[in-house]
Structures are given as C-alpha cells and as structure tokens.
C-alpha cells in the first residue's frame, strides 16, 4: 500500500483553474494601475521630473467687462502679481502675471470718400469697461496638438477665467509662446 500512495503523490497535479471572482479581481487591479499611470496629476509630475515642462507665456484678452474703476482693478491685479486661472471650466491653479496692458476702446467710422477714421471712444469715461491684455507665465508641455497648460490642451481662442482677490473676469486666449518666460 505504501507503493500506491507514492504513485498518487508522484502524479502531476491538475492546473489550477481561475474562477470568475479571480478574473474580476485581476481586471480591477489592472484598471486601477492604468488609472494611476494615466492620471493627469501623475503625468504632470513625471513631466516635471523628466524636464518636459517648459516655460509658457499665455496672452489673454479681456474685453468689455463692466467695472466701476478699471484703472484701480488693473493696479490691484499688478500688486497681487498672480491670478488663478480656469481653462474650459477646469481649475489650473495660480500663474504669475507678467504684464497687464489696458486696451483703449476705439470707434471706427467709414467716411463718404472711402477713408476709415478712428477715434478714442468718448463713452469710456461715462460707461467704464475693462479692456486689457494679460500676459500670464506658467509651465506647460509641448505636444503635437499644441501646449498642455494645467493638464488642459490650450490653443488660441480657448475660453479662460481669470480670478484675483477682488475680481473674476472671462476672456479668451489670443497668443501662446513656448519656451519664453
């Protein structure tokens, strides 16, 4: 009988089968690992660590925002030195203000002889509005389809919101310069 028990233990065991629970657990682990690898925050951290982040200057134009004192608002933003930026309703964080240039409102008139005449808007003193060009500096990654700024692919024409301590205005991206900062 001892020989029979040795023969039974010498036979190879049948391969272990995977149950549905095992397959489901393996799929969950793979999905979790994929989510961590493709996470926007992780990809930004990896880009910083590998040196893929470059200085990016984004130009944002804000036009026609009703403000009681546009000059005071511009000076307050300059004093603050940084603003929070929201790109396509996704918060990016804070970026440095490189410059703020007020844009004067101009009236254009076509004369009967075909000339085009421009003049400063006389209503600007009565109905004050903020028209300004902001140069914002931050870090981004250059990709094939443009620039990734704040985990958002940003292009000219993209809507953005700029928020400071005492204001929140909407504008649009009118220029992007990569590698300048």
Describe the structure.
The chain has 181 residues and is an alpha+beta fold. The protein has two domains: 19-51; 54-178, Elongation Factor Tu (Ef-tu), domain 3 (Beta Barrel). The protein has four helices and ten strands; from the N terminus they run αααβαβββββββββ. The protein has helices at residues 2-10, 20-37, 40-50, 70-80; strands at residues 53-66, 82-87, 90-102, 106-110, 116-120, 129-143, 146-149, 152-154, 159-163, 168-178. It is elongated, with a radius of gyration of 30 Å. The model has no long low-confidence stretch (mean pLDDT 81).
* Percentage of β-strand residues: 35-45%
Q: How many DSSP E strands?
A: 10
Major β-sheet strand ordering: 1-6-3-2-9-10
Count of runs of 4 or more consecutive helical residues: 4
Helix content: 25-40%
Total domain units: 2
Instruction: Give the CATH level 1 class of the largest domain.
Output: Mainly Beta
Kindly report the average pLDDT value: 81
How far the N terminus sits from the C terminus, by CA atoms, comes to: 86 Å
Order of helices and strands: HHHEHEEEEEEEEE
Low-confidence stretches: none
Radius of gyration (Å)? 30 Å
CATH architecture of the largest domain: Beta Barrel
Structural class: alpha+beta
Write down the overall geometry: elongated
Largest sheet entry: 6 strands, antiparallel, barrel
Q: What is the CATH topology descriptor of the largest domain?
A: Elongation Factor Tu (Ef-tu), domain 3
